[in-house]
């Protein structure tokens, strides 16, 4: 089926049942033409332009720039993501970025921006040149341009606001990655996102058009395990032909390569109104939109930076009704609400001067209570910090441990028997019907009985507990090895008996999570071995939530040391680069999580009371 203009990650989802099917009758009929737009260096970019046939007023442009095939763009009035805007009347522009699909030139994954004064091209100059051409060559335009897009297309939108064309009047970067070493698609806190990075590098760089890696296993858990050490990727499969994979190998630490690529480092001033969009259960880029919003807040003297966070997987707000994700119901069509009540009015205001736009600083879907909340600051300021401590016998409570001894819980972490990150079989990320999109909402009971996963939980709550804002895990941990990964999850445990929704009885819903690669505890630039059997504090940013743990539910914290094959296996014996580790470097280790007065492992929550 036609997939409209969507990212690699959204492709498989279009076959899903909860997609929007109802078509409203379009106000305009759109006709399209394809052009090759010349850039300043002579390279021409393929661009598909849709113009409403019977429009009387001059219209603004709405543009997306993508590595995912602009030809897929569908008549805007039949494209769920933008049809509410199509009925208002815009000139829609879809462009293949340099080197992808029908555009000329050389593709470079997340091409770094030119440094001040440097002459050349980057995604910002390509955006500028395209806008300039459109204004001069497409008749009937009102001189204003908006940009929008999800993920990679969100990132190209963000690049548009760097040295922007003066006609760029509104930009909505949605689920844009910000930093590929610290928190988005390729690494989190230095831990390498193996399955995504492997499959994505192949999909984008094996050819000029999207290509799926030909797995000969349905359960890729087994495929990645049989792969053995990471050096086998180039040795057996890629043969050093994929630039992104070669860069992963060449830059195992947070060096200049990653720092130059970081989007937030490029944001030093801004005069374009911005609508940032994030999904609570975004399986690819959740760190990105939140850190981009925060970076823009620091320079937001004109109050033109706004934020939307909904209960969504990566891009769910674009093509889905959004009334549920996996097994979790939200009781309203949150995707439609976004498209009709937020996205369309926001662009209409900034590009057409219509209505009031969308006035809240931050509109956030509060999970658990299933309510949209409006905040004048995000995260909200007046919150109280409360610490949840782990205790003996799997208990979790707001009371600090008083144990004077060396109290801890422990497990054996064995790299040859890693913990799956989701219920097996783990189909390839973008196979038809892949469960990748919803995995963050999967019931965590599937790991409950693993001896290498530790859980602590509160008693059933006597009142609702509303957690809004930042969450920080303070993990005091030791390994008998010399490197280790630490994965911390915050889980909402439903009561065993839920008469109105019996299948949710006892469900364990992850509401926050993160991984930290221990070698980076002092510096992401310069990894260091961990001293065996020494307790270290690992402050792990679990980002933000707005969630009500309902009365009768429990709060659970889980710790484990593998999440395979989402994260590559840590050898647990220190090697300078895990990309060149040998099979014999992978060793079992004893991992201890402390719960004493001196080393009180706890989670800091921001709560309302
Ligand atoms: N998450 C995808 C991505 C963006 C940027 C770089 C690499 C991957 C995407 O869905 O576009």
From TrEMBL:
Keyword Hydrolase attributed: yes
InterPro entries named in the record: AB_hydrolase_fold, CocE/Ser_esterase, Galactose-bd-like_sf, Xaa-Pro-like_dom, Xaa-Pro_dipept_C, Xaa-Pro_dipeptidyl-ppase/CocE
GO molecular function: dipeptidyl-peptidase activity
Entries under Pfam families matching the protein: Peptidase_S15, PepX_C
Signal peptide: 1-22
Residue span(s) of domain Xaa-Pro dipeptidyl-peptidase C-terminal: 344-604
Source species, domain of life: Bacteria
The entry's keywords: Hydrolase, Signal
NCBIfam families: CocE_NonD
Name of the protein described by the UniProt record: CocE/NonD family hydrolase
UniProt organism field: Dyadobacter chenwenxiniae
Lineage of the species this protein comes from: Bacteria, Pseudomonadati, Bacteroidota, Cytophagia, Cytophagales
